[in-house]
Design brief:
By secondary structure, this protein is an alpha+beta fold. Strands 1, 2, 3, 4, 5 and 6 form a six-stranded antiparallel sheet that branches. α1 runs antiparallel to α5 and α5 packs antiparallel against α6. The longest helix is centred in the middle third of the chain and has 16 residues. The chain is globular, with a radius of gyration of 15 Å. It starts with a helix and ends with a helix.
Length: about 160
């Protein structure tokens, strides 16, 4: 499992982001039993069904090439839990849409758009200070969130 994900990260190419995203989802599906030990069920079920065409990939200001390289180095000798967490974070980093809105709480970063796992609720959230808003109101951060789809963002 380690070598497989490290190899995938080392082959990261920002110009082939949809292909890389699809390979991450395939990796998760291929190691489903292991991911189920560490990732909440509803989140995992939603992520496993994700298709690259559903998302605005790579809209964050994150240096995805740097993340992939850094992740590949931190995964050497990592245990299953660290690998699962890391891969889910990479999916989040790639698929979560970043708005032009500055966080009203920390003013340090732009808000990202996330969804409930059942796709019924849309949230704006800050990765820096972890505030979460729904319909313009601050709420307690949900236990499970996944990246919002193009359809949700456009509605």
């Amino acid at each position: 499992m380690n070598e497989e994900i490290i190899d995938l990260y080392k082959k990261f190419d920002n110009n082939k982001l949809p292909l890389f995203f699809g390979k991450l989802i395939l990796f998760i599906n291929n190691h489903d039993k292991i991911f189920r030990k560490y990732i909440l069920e509803d989140s995992l079920n939603s992520i496993e069904q994700s298709k690259e065409s559903e998302f605005f990939l790579g809209t964050t200001d994150d240096n995805l090439e740097g993340l992939a390289l850094g992740y590949s180095e931190t995964l050497i000798g990592a245990d299953e839990k660290e690998i699962c967490s890391n891969v889910i974070h990479m999916v989040w980093d790639i698929a979560t849409f970043m708005t032009d809105e500055l966080c009203p709480s920390c003013q340090d970063t732009n808000l990202k758009i996330a969804s409930s796992t059942d796709r019924n609720n849309i949230y704006k959230t800050c990765d820096n200070c972890l505030i979460t808003m729904e319909n313009g109101q601050f709420i307690e951060r949900p236990k499970e969130m996944i990246p919002a789809t193009k359809e949700q963002i456009n509605s």
